[in-house]
Amino acid sequence: MTAEQDVITAPKPASAARHHDGLTHEQLLSAYRQMKTIREFEERVHVENASGAIPGFTHLYCGQEAVAVGACEHLTDADYIISTHRGHGHCIAKGCDVVGMMKEIHGRRDGLNGGKGGSMHIADIGKGMLGANGVVGAGQPIAVGAAIACKLRGEGRIAASFTGDGASNQGTVFEAMNMAVVLQLPKVFVFENNGYSEHTGASYGIGCEDIVKRIEGFGIPVWQADGFDFFSVYEAMGKALEVSRNGGGPTAIYCETIRYFGHFEGDPQNYRAKDEVQRYRAEKDCLLKFRARMEANGGLSTDELDAVDREVGALIERAVQEARNAPRPRAEDLLTNVYDNY
Amino acid sequence: MPKKSMREAINEALHLEMARDPSVIVLGEDVSGGAGGTSGQRDAAGGVFGLTKGLLPKFGEHRVIDTPISESAIIGAANGAALAGLRPVAEIMFSDFIGVCFDQILNQAAKFRYMFNGAKAPLVVRMTVGAGRSAAAQHSQSMHALLSAIPGIKVVMPSNAYDAKGLLLQAIRDDDPVIFLEHKMLYNDTCEVPDGDYTIPFGEGVLVREGEHVTVVATGQLVKLATGVVDRLAAEGVRCDLIDPRTTSPLDEELILESVRETGRLVVVDEAPPRCGFAADVAALVAREAFASLRAPVATVTPPHTPVPFAPELEREYLPDAARVERAIRSVLAH
């Protein structure tokens, strides 16, 4: 294992001396590194996709990094998450191997899922990542099942599901919230409202205009966070987890955020005002915000932040080079992993 | 050997496996029944057909989980629990209701292993199938053909109590998602069933009767019907191979082909609708692999291509009956 991989997949350090916003120096570094890795990964996938190197559909998470990292910073490999079709950020935040992910997105044989899953279906069961999912809302009841397993084992594990504003209109999400309450499961619903379900604005698609009220309607306590601010998400997730890990049943956090790219790569985004993304990038970007806060309160120095940038840049460059040169699947791979036995 | 009904055999298999393996859980609407009721009787129903009776008092509410009526969440939860290392046995009372949760079967359970680099999802979904009780169009369908068309899941269809117990124990221990289809007309049928532990492998059909003139393939409750016809015809010298595939996916293709190569004649008796159905699939298999052996066109006995009717006279007309099976056998013999 290389040094870079070691850093990316290392377990979260046990809370030692806490300072600066309640996080240790190592945690601050890790949080920034994870957000930066997602950003670089996504920006690079955007370029690679435009070059024609990536088959199929790709949906980018760029702009929402603070949510995935703020939530997953609390979790270990023993906890489960389940993601959406916009899943790269959640996978990286949960510790999936970045090089393996890049290979997977390129459809290569030694990709994280053998080139069988691709961008929309990245999973790593050993890391507690139960899959990005191509069907909107389908992951929520699956995370309910993972939470049943957590409760039965009684080891303080939890399951978290990431859900968009579009999925919040799906029946599966309603069913999952109700069942999680009925069974008092250790489950955290993370709602990320990025303003659009595909090409349709959330202000149009969500009838009640307030997802939080819906969640509360199921009897689930919900903490609201600023989806552009790592610390806000981290704090909300911490409060939710304190309840869910200690037998208090399901909880939720709700974050408003934005996606920098279209619904899918190649989406001309005619439904968006011309300056919408530019404005958010300039005024609210989660990485700039994190950096400014660190530099203001001394949590991390500019040199340290720059060093992370270089380290992540090198990692993503290596991932792309390895993915380009990785072997393609062979015809005989078509029939593997259909069944355990048949 | 003690005689047991298929209901008792399935209940016994669940008891045995839950005791043997602490990772087995049972979940579904009313699997114990009585939660939130005013009688205080927590194991009030034990499943609407009584299949899961007695599990809750023995294994507790953490492993025997009454859910809301929420099919997508039931199968989704079984999927997630299986990915997280449990062996869930989910119940969807009537297979007709899978329309509500089909995504979780078609796109989720069936695909985990393939998409997720060999991830195990060892879940079982138990459901009732079949017509015969005037339960009408939304509670009487036979879904095995539709489900067998999906790569990644296995489909089991026991025709008797002995097979039901051995196949269910196999299903729970199997590392793939298994759909276990119980015909509601068979629950009270009895046969000899050992008390102990035994499994029946998937993809191995059974030769219920042996004969050299005609191959008859029958599934589920129609095995019983076909057995009666085959035995009557044997008395007049017409001898049939009667094959019960027991699982429609995987399918014991070899057993069927070997038999047809000997008899040269095939009749398929099945309760799925005819279009793109199980009977058509077996007919195509034989046409593809054993065409030279055929001495007569393949005959199929299935319901017509209609929803299941309510009125008893219409339902009787809908289901394959002994006269039609006999006619089909005589028609292939006439060639």
TrEMBL record, chain A:
SUPFAM superfamilies: Thiamin diphosphate-binding fold (THDP-binding). It comes from the Bacteria. Transmembrane segments: none annotated. Keywords: Oxidoreductase, Thiamine pyrophosphate. InterPro entries: DH_E1, PDH_E1_Alpha_Subunit, THDP-binding. Residues 33-331 form the Dehydrogenase E1 component domain. Its cofactor is thiamine diphosphate. The keyword Oxidoreductase applies. Residues 1-20 are annotated as: Disordered. Coiled coil: none annotated. Pfam families: E1_dh (PF00676). PANTHER family: PYRUVATE DEHYDROGENASE E1 COMPONENT SUBUNIT ALPHA, PYRUVATE DEHYDROGENASE E1 COMPONENT, ALPHA SUBUNIT BACTERIAL AND ORGANELLAR. This is ABC transporter substrate-binding protein. It comes from Aromatoleum petrolei.
UniProtKB/TrEMBL annotation, chain B:
The keyword Oxidoreductase applies. Residues 4-189 form the Transketolase-like pyrimidine-binding domain. It holds the Pfam family Transketolase_C. It comes from the Bacteria. InterPro entries: THDP-binding, Transketo_C/PFOR_II, Transketolase-like_Pyr-bd, Transketolase_C. Keywords: Oxidoreductase. PANTHER family: ACETOIN:2,6-DICHLOROPHENOLINDOPHENOL OXIDOREDUCTASE SUBUNIT BETA, PYRUVATE DEHYDROGENASE E1 COMPONENT BETA SUBUNIT. This is Alpha-ketoacid dehydrogenase subunit beta. It comes from Aromatoleum petrolei.
